[in-house]
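Please, structure for the following, as tokens.
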Amino acid sequence: MNLLKGYTVSESAEVDHDHDGEELYLGNWWGFPPLRNALIAGVALAATYFLSRADVISDGVSIGFYVIVGIFAARYWGEEALESIAEFRVDIDVLMFAATVGSAALGLWEEAAFLAFLYAGAEGLEEYTYDRTRGAIRALLDLAPKEASILRNGGEVTIAADELTPGDVMVVRPGEGFATDGTVRSGTTSVDEAAVTGESIPVEKGIGDEVFAGTVNLTGAVEVAVTKAFADNTLSQIIHLVEEAQEDKTETQQLIDRFGKYYSPAVLVSAFALGIVPILFGGDPAVWIRRGITLAVAGAPCALVMSTPVAVASAIGSAGKQGVLIKGGIHLESLAKVRVLAIDKTGTLTRGEPQITDIIGVADTDPTDVLHHAAAVEASSEHPLGRAIVRRAEADGIGVERAQEFEALTGAGARATVDGNVIYVGNVALFAEMGAATDAISPTVEQLREQGKTVVVVGHADRIIGVIALRDEFRPETPEMIKLLHQLNIDDVVMLTGDNQRTATAIADGIGINHVRADLKPVDKADAVVELQDTLGPVAMVGDGINDAPALATATVGIAMGAAGTDAAIEAADVALMGDDLRTIPYAIALGRKANTIARQNIVFSIILLSILVPAAVVGAVSIAAAVVIHEGSEILAVLNGLRARRSRAQLDM
């Protein structure tokens, strides 16, 4: 239901629009017309009731007031009911409309007005709450400045953020926000990226690094080359995807919708039959018509219908604020079922950037000289290991002078002239082929490899001067992620990697993962996921690269790591983690379970209530007014219970 439809929004009203252009009310409850009308109707109803009981107004006047109050209260939901009738649909609005009109036809003016008022209040509160839940994520847009300073014609000019285009250069000073996505062109700073990635620790940024809309520049002035227009930036994309996800239904919700499609008409037919058939056999019309109306109210499945949507919308919206994009209710529900976590190694469990762990000089060679010669050769290389060697040399204050006559040796290493000497940097096999003595370093190389490290040898064609060991270190939060998964009773965590078994096992042992499958091609990872699902149950697959795509698609839930700024990763995954914090994985699973538990609580509560209230209505054990109060109270309780899924990450029980 969209109660917002059909009223005019004042200029001061806080109204936004979702991705389909539908209005979402974000202001205080008094400014929300359905709720405001319901409150006014309630006050008028109470005044009419007490004035009539005190004989201040006549019965005729009080009836007139009840009619006016009823029409005023039914202003929004009554319009929905009439539209459903025109389309030959029987839904909850139609049931309540029939009950209201039936009560009035029996001369039960108080009951009719009371029913219209309570239903208006419950539906208004539901819609207001749902809109606030869906619209909460849109508040992130306020984090991005509405204007930006850009360089133009040799000076700075200020333009509206939505006028930014790729190629513009923004000037962003300390304390200011980034209006859209871009790449740092000059300057260094630290950036608060919590709004996008959920990461609370500021991230250092320098030339060439990406920055995202809605993040805040903390320390230094930077110039940023715009890479995305405002409407296409990462923050806008998050909002768009979360809005779509909140409308996507879980399997449970789809089942309830199919049930309601047949149940609501059955209730209406049953209510009509209860009010008419006994009269044909001599029953008292006043008694049986009243019972039929009561059945229409008691049997309306409001709480059942609302059992899942608010919980889903609340959970997905809350996750979005933590930098976790859950792309639909069906994926939220799937997260709740996960019993196994399969996870890629490089770039997921590890940082994806090898780091030097050991520098060992051979034959009294100073380790600093080893690093100096290796860095000079690798300064001309684009290989990840070469870049790691250069980074370490620069960090240690060793001047890196680009070597002469550089030549890459495919599959073996590289060579170049350094200080007049030809220096080779490569694997052990390269030096063995050239005739250099490798026996002396073999025990050291073997020991380093047993630790899961990659070994690079440095030397001349006939003489080795040193060994450098590198390893892609695991992320520091990885052990905590494993601990949190165990708390969720997910004990089967499986590393899937294309690396060799020895390296993979060494990494796994260091972080507490007991199951490793190595030497896997992308298709092998997908096959491994299928096998895990067949033997252990629903699997969540976590990866970061395009090579993980087959496995992500095969798993019960595919989770992409570090998706901020990566359109393909965001679009491909069922769940996208905007940052690189592995602890958001157990958070997402726990959130899915929580939302699923809340939805089940609401469903059970609704079914129990219907099983009691419907028979009571049939035998006349409950009045129309009591049925309305219980019915609408249950709907409000279902909504409020669903909102518990909005609890923040810090409060979430894991």
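The first strand starts at residue 15 and ends at 17. The chain has a mean pLDDT of 84.
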